[in-house]
């Protein structure tokens, strides 16, 4: 079966949730899934359940740097090394481990902020194993990512509690 590229994008809540749902669907059919996150701190609730789910392996990011706009230049340099290494490790493991699906949660933000090796990601997507499904999440995907994608789903915000000052809540947004 040919693997395709999915993008979940938009200003609305639910991009990562959609990727989690697709991961569970894939694993539920006995297929191996590799799931990793960029620009997050490994504390979101979905990682806890995904790491206990048969056929899903969570590859954690070894370091969290917080929001991009709050990083110093030296933190951006360090984050670029960390996230580029994470991308390479995920790509290598997805290929070597014969996974059916690779989820790169918030990779689009890392790509847009130049916190990964952009050329590496593009080459990997173009030359991925035929059976590997790849899921990318994040806002404002570049034209080159959109061109490579087979699915592009936009999640549009109509209303969100954050607009009224309600922060992220355990089990709902994190």
From TrEMBL:
InterPro entries listed in its UniProt record: CblAdoTrfase_CobA, P-loop_NTPase
GO terms of biological process kind: cobalamin biosynthetic process
Pfam families per UniProt: CobA_CobO_BtuR
GO molecular function: ATP binding; corrinoid adenosyltransferase activity
Assigned keywords, A-Z: Transferase
Classification via Gene3D superfamilies: P-loop containing nucleotide triphosphate hydrolases (3.40.50.300)
Source superkingdom: Bacteria
Keyword Transferase appears in the UniProt entry: yes
Protein name: Cob(I)alamin adenosyltransferase
Organism: Anaerobium acetethylicum
């Amino acid at each position: 079966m040919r693997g395709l590229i999915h993008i979940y994008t938009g200003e609305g809540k639910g991009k990562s949730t959609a990727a989690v749902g697709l991961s569970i669907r894939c694993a539920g059919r006995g297929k191996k899934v590799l799931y990793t996150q960029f620009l997050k701190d490994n504390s979101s609730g979905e990682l806890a359940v995904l790491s206990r789910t048969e056929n899903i392996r969570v590859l954690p990011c070894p370091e969290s740097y917080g929001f991009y706009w709050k990083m110093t230049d030296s933190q951006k340099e360090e984050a670029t090394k960390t996230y580029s290494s994470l991308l390479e490790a995920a790509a290598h493991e997805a290929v070597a481990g014969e996974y059916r699906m690779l989820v790169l949660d918030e990779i689009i933000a890392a790509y847009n902020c130049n916190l990964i090796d952009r050329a590496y990601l593009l080459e990997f997507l173009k030359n991925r194993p035929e059976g590997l499904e790849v899921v990318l999440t994040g806002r404002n995907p570049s034209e080159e990512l959109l061109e490579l994608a087979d699915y592009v789903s936009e999640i549009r915000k109509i209303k969100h509690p954050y607009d009224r000052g309600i922060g992220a809540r355990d089990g709902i947004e994190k």
